[in-house]
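Researcher: Here's the sequence for the chain we discussed earlier.
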Amino acid sequence: MLRSDDRKLFTHDSPGQCPGVARLQFFGDRKKAVAVLLWKQEKGEGYLVVGREQGGDRWEVMEVSKLGGSFPPVIWPEPPGEYADWNGTRKMKVKWPAIHLVQYEAWSKLFAWDGSKIVMLQMTD
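Model: Thanks. This is the structure I predict for it:
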């Protein structure tokens, strides 16, 4: 469960969206994709996974990141574009919508598909 301050920030940043689910064209192949944040509050751990429709009722699910901490992070989609890391030393050009994973007041990471694998950019630290 999100802390009340985190819920307010998320509602401001991403009105009308769910803090643990993001629908996006992550793989650039026009197939449905959804990113889901799975969190076990009592253990303070979870996973970010992304699923891609394979046709019919079949989905491929991939683990994107293992997570830990006192409170769950949030996710939302980011549009294609150029992004830089927290200190400006690394840039990443994103061709398709990306997943922004944020732990308010701590860190944020951007996950994108480069055509063959998922890549990560540390946005803030």
